[in-house]
Amino acid sequence: MLNEVKSAFRENKLAICISLAILVISLILGYLLEPYAYSYMNPVVEAFSRRVESGAIQLTFADIFLNNLRVIFMMFILGLLFCFSVLILAFNGFFVGYYVALSGNIRVFLYIIPHGIFELSSCILACSSGLILFNFIYRFIKALLYQENKPFSDKVVDSYESSRAKLKQACIIFFISVILMIIAGFIEAYLTIPIARFVISVLG
Predict the structure, then answer these.
(1) Coil/strand/helix, residue 170
(2) What is the distance between the alpha carbons of residues 195 and 201, in angstroms, rounded to a whole number?
(3) Structural Rg of the chain based on CA atoms
Protein backbone atom coordinates (compact mmCIF):
# COMPACT_ATOMS: atom_id res chain seq x y z
CA MET A 1 0.00 0.00 0.00
CA LEU A 2 2.81 2.39 0.89
CA ASN A 3 4.41 1.82 -2.51
CA GLU A 4 1.10 2.61 -4.21
CA VAL A 5 0.84 5.86 -2.26
CA LYS A 6 4.39 6.82 -3.23
CA SER A 7 3.66 5.94 -6.85
CA ALA A 8 0.46 7.99 -6.85
CA PHE A 9 2.35 11.07 -5.67
CA ARG A 10 5.37 10.46 -7.88
CA GLU A 11 3.36 9.99 -11.07
CA ASN A 12 1.07 12.95 -10.44
CA LYS A 13 3.53 15.65 -9.42
CA LEU A 14 2.25 17.91 -12.18
CA ALA A 15 -1.35 17.83 -10.92
CA ILE A 16 -0.18 18.53 -7.36
CA CYS A 17 2.09 21.39 -8.48
CA ILE A 18 -0.72 22.92 -10.55
CA SER A 19 -3.07 22.76 -7.56
CA LEU A 20 -0.44 24.27 -5.26
CA ALA A 21 0.22 27.10 -7.72
CA ILE A 22 -3.51 27.83 -8.06
CA LEU A 23 -3.92 28.02 -4.28
CA VAL A 24 -0.89 30.28 -3.77
CA ILE A 25 -1.89 32.62 -6.60
CA SER A 26 -5.51 32.82 -5.41
CA LEU A 27 -4.38 33.54 -1.83
CA ILE A 28 -2.17 36.40 -3.02
CA LEU A 29 -4.87 37.80 -5.31
CA GLY A 30 -7.46 37.62 -2.52
CA TYR A 31 -5.16 39.59 -0.25
CA LEU A 32 -4.12 42.19 -2.83
CA LEU A 33 -7.57 42.70 -4.35
CA GLU A 34 -9.46 43.02 -1.05
CA PRO A 35 -10.42 46.70 -1.64
CA TYR A 36 -11.79 45.88 -5.08
CA ALA A 37 -13.53 42.64 -4.08
CA TYR A 38 -15.22 44.07 -0.99
CA SER A 39 -18.64 44.56 -2.57
CA TYR A 40 -18.63 40.98 -3.86
CA MET A 41 -16.95 39.11 -1.02
CA ASN A 42 -18.15 40.92 2.09
CA PRO A 43 -21.75 39.63 1.76
CA VAL A 44 -20.28 36.10 1.81
CA VAL A 45 -18.32 36.88 5.00
CA GLU A 46 -21.35 38.50 6.65
CA ALA A 47 -23.66 35.64 5.70
CA PHE A 48 -21.23 33.12 7.17
CA SER A 49 -20.88 35.19 10.37
CA ARG A 50 -24.66 35.40 10.75
CA ARG A 51 -25.02 31.64 10.35
CA VAL A 52 -22.38 31.04 13.04
CA GLU A 53 -23.98 33.57 15.40
CA SER A 54 -27.46 32.13 14.86
CA GLY A 55 -26.23 28.60 15.52
CA ALA A 56 -26.99 27.41 11.99
CA ILE A 57 -23.29 26.60 11.81
CA GLN A 58 -21.60 25.42 14.98
CA LEU A 59 -17.85 25.26 15.24
CA THR A 60 -17.84 21.67 16.46
CA PHE A 61 -15.61 18.98 15.02
CA ALA A 62 -18.56 17.31 13.26
CA ASP A 63 -19.82 20.55 11.67
CA ILE A 64 -16.36 21.70 10.62
CA PHE A 65 -15.40 18.31 9.19
CA LEU A 66 -18.68 17.70 7.35
CA ASN A 67 -18.59 21.17 5.78
CA ASN A 68 -14.97 20.77 4.70
CA LEU A 69 -15.61 17.20 3.52
CA ARG A 70 -18.36 18.53 1.26
CA VAL A 71 -15.90 21.01 -0.26
CA ILE A 72 -13.13 18.52 -0.96
CA PHE A 73 -15.60 15.91 -2.24
CA MET A 74 -16.91 18.49 -4.72
CA MET A 75 -13.34 19.18 -5.84
CA PHE A 76 -12.82 15.45 -6.34
CA ILE A 77 -16.02 14.52 -8.13
CA LEU A 78 -16.18 17.70 -10.22
CA GLY A 79 -12.81 16.73 -11.60
CA LEU A 80 -14.99 14.90 -14.11
CA LEU A 81 -15.62 18.38 -15.52
CA PHE A 82 -11.95 19.39 -15.15
CA CYS A 83 -12.06 23.12 -14.52
CA PHE A 84 -14.59 23.04 -11.68
CA SER A 85 -12.10 21.48 -9.24
CA VAL A 86 -9.72 24.31 -10.03
CA LEU A 87 -12.44 26.95 -9.63
CA ILE A 88 -13.48 25.66 -6.19
CA LEU A 89 -9.87 25.64 -4.98
CA ALA A 90 -9.25 29.12 -6.40
CA PHE A 91 -12.36 30.53 -4.72
CA ASN A 92 -11.41 29.07 -1.34
CA GLY A 93 -7.87 30.42 -1.65
CA PHE A 94 -9.15 33.83 -2.72
CA PHE A 95 -11.58 33.88 0.21
CA VAL A 96 -8.84 33.11 2.76
CA GLY A 97 -6.57 35.80 1.30
CA TYR A 98 -9.44 38.27 1.26
CA TYR A 99 -10.41 37.49 4.85
CA VAL A 100 -6.85 37.98 6.10
CA ALA A 101 -6.63 41.36 4.33
CA LEU A 102 -10.09 42.37 5.56
CA SER A 103 -9.23 41.67 9.19
CA GLY A 104 -6.32 44.08 8.99
CA ASN A 105 -4.69 42.27 11.90
CA ILE A 106 -1.65 40.04 11.51
CA ARG A 107 -2.84 38.05 14.55
CA VAL A 108 -5.58 36.50 12.41
CA PHE A 109 -2.84 34.17 11.13
CA LEU A 110 -2.71 32.63 14.60
CA TYR A 111 -6.34 31.57 14.14
CA ILE A 112 -5.64 30.10 10.71
CA ILE A 113 -2.18 28.53 10.72
CA PRO A 114 -2.66 25.65 13.24
CA HIS A 115 -5.44 23.96 11.27
CA GLY A 116 -4.84 25.78 7.99
CA ILE A 117 -1.64 23.86 7.29
CA PHE A 118 -3.62 20.62 7.15
CA GLU A 119 -6.80 22.09 5.67
CA LEU A 120 -5.09 23.83 2.75
CA SER A 121 -2.90 20.76 2.12
CA SER A 122 -6.09 18.70 2.01
CA CYS A 123 -7.63 21.11 -0.50
CA ILE A 124 -4.53 20.94 -2.70
CA LEU A 125 -4.69 17.13 -2.76
CA ALA A 126 -8.47 17.13 -3.31
CA CYS A 127 -8.07 19.38 -6.34
CA SER A 128 -5.18 17.20 -7.54
CA SER A 129 -7.32 14.08 -7.20
CA GLY A 130 -10.00 15.82 -9.28
CA LEU A 131 -7.47 16.58 -12.01
CA ILE A 132 -6.25 12.97 -11.92
CA LEU A 133 -9.86 11.77 -12.16
CA PHE A 134 -10.24 13.91 -15.28
CA ASN A 135 -7.05 12.31 -16.63
CA PHE A 136 -8.64 8.89 -16.07
CA ILE A 137 -11.78 9.91 -17.98
CA TYR A 138 -9.67 11.36 -20.80
CA ARG A 139 -7.60 8.19 -21.09
CA PHE A 140 -10.69 5.99 -20.91
CA ILE A 141 -12.52 7.86 -23.70
CA LYS A 142 -9.39 8.06 -25.83
CA ALA A 143 -8.78 4.31 -25.52
CA LEU A 144 -12.45 3.65 -26.25
CA LEU A 145 -12.47 5.73 -29.43
CA TYR A 146 -9.24 4.32 -30.82
CA GLN A 147 -10.32 0.69 -30.63
CA GLU A 148 -11.86 -0.87 -33.70
CA ASN A 149 -13.41 -4.16 -34.73
CA LYS A 150 -14.45 -5.11 -31.22
CA PRO A 151 -17.82 -5.47 -29.48
CA PHE A 152 -18.64 -2.34 -27.47
CA SER A 153 -18.57 -4.24 -24.16
CA ASP A 154 -15.03 -5.44 -24.91
CA LYS A 155 -14.00 -1.89 -25.79
CA VAL A 156 -15.30 -0.65 -22.43
CA VAL A 157 -13.48 -3.37 -20.49
CA ASP A 158 -10.21 -2.86 -22.39
CA SER A 159 -10.41 0.92 -22.05
CA TYR A 160 -11.00 0.64 -18.32
CA GLU A 161 -8.11 -1.79 -17.88
CA SER A 162 -5.74 0.52 -19.73
CA SER A 163 -6.66 3.58 -17.64
CA ARG A 164 -7.72 2.24 -14.23
CA ALA A 165 -4.33 3.03 -12.67
CA LYS A 166 -5.24 6.72 -12.80
CA LEU A 167 -8.61 6.08 -11.16
CA LYS A 168 -6.90 4.21 -8.34
CA GLN A 169 -4.33 6.99 -7.90
CA ALA A 170 -7.08 9.61 -7.81
CA CYS A 171 -8.85 7.68 -5.05
CA ILE A 172 -5.63 7.20 -3.05
CA ILE A 173 -4.80 10.90 -3.11
CA PHE A 174 -8.37 11.85 -2.24
CA PHE A 175 -8.31 9.42 0.70
CA ILE A 176 -5.18 11.14 2.03
CA SER A 177 -6.95 14.47 1.54
CA VAL A 178 -9.78 13.21 3.76
CA ILE A 179 -7.32 12.13 6.45
CA LEU A 180 -5.69 15.57 6.43
CA MET A 181 -9.13 17.19 6.68
CA ILE A 182 -9.99 15.05 9.71
CA ILE A 183 -6.80 16.27 11.39
CA ALA A 184 -7.59 19.87 10.38
CA GLY A 185 -11.13 19.63 11.76
CA PHE A 186 -9.90 18.27 15.09
CA ILE A 187 -7.28 21.01 15.44
CA GLU A 188 -9.73 23.76 14.44
CA ALA A 189 -12.40 22.55 16.86
CA TYR A 190 -10.20 21.88 19.89
CA LEU A 191 -6.74 23.41 19.53
CA THR A 192 -6.61 26.46 17.24
CA ILE A 193 -8.23 28.98 19.62
CA PRO A 194 -6.32 27.84 22.76
CA ILE A 195 -3.03 27.90 20.82
CA ALA A 196 -3.76 31.35 19.38
CA ARG A 197 -4.75 32.78 22.77
CA PHE A 198 -1.66 31.32 24.39
CA VAL A 199 0.66 32.81 21.77
CA ILE A 200 -1.10 36.19 22.00
CA SER A 201 -0.78 36.18 25.80
CA VAL A 202 2.93 35.39 25.54
CA LEU A 203 3.55 38.10 22.93
CA GLY A 204 1.44 40.56 24.91
Answers:
(1) helix
(2) 10
(3) 20
